[in-house]
Write a structure and sequence with these properties.
Number of helices: 4
Structural class: mainly alpha
Helix content: over 70%
Radius of gyration: 20 Å
Largest sheet: none
Number of strands: 0
Strand content: under 5%
Distance between the termini: 73 Å
Oligomer: single chain
Length: about 130
């Protein structure tokens, strides 16, 4: 039988503290997370400026969150592999490459989302300004 779940407030607060520490580690140490945060901030500013629709905010928010979460998973996988072995093992390389590739898939998807949301508005603005 499994141990009972500790539902104390102290444990809950500690769990949030650990999670925020992990986010802090990502932001302080991972260059790609910093880049994604900058691009996400630009996308949010563009969304405010171009007054995107509510449903577009939902898509944009989920997309930014997906990319940042993928970077977090990638960092966790890389740290775990590094902890397990310092040798150049083929399986270690596969784990790291697949994790990095997954981030790339999310980032490329975010680019497509950005083009679909902002592309028509920016194109229309370009046409207005270029006449």
């Amino acid at each position: 039988m499994a141990a009972p779940i500790d539902r104390s407030t102290r444990r809950l607060i500690a769990a949030f503290r650990y999670a925020f520490a992990g986010i802090g580690h990502l932001v302080r140490t991972q260059r790609n997370v910093q880049i994604h945060l900058l691009i996400g901030a630009i996308a949010v500013a563009l969304g405010v400026t171009l007054r995107i629709a509510h449903w577009e905010w939902v898509v944009l928010t989920l997309t930014i969150g997906l990319v940042l979460a993928a970077e977090g998973f990638n960092t966790a996988i890389e740290a775990t592999v590094d902890l397990a072995t310092r040798d150049h093992h083929p399986l270690a390389r596969i784990a790291k490459d697949v994790a990095a590739g997954s981030v790339l898939i999310c980032a490329l998807t975010a680019v497509v989302v950005g083009v679909l949301i902002f592309g028509p508005r920016l194109w229309a603005l370009w046409l207005i300004l270029s006449t």
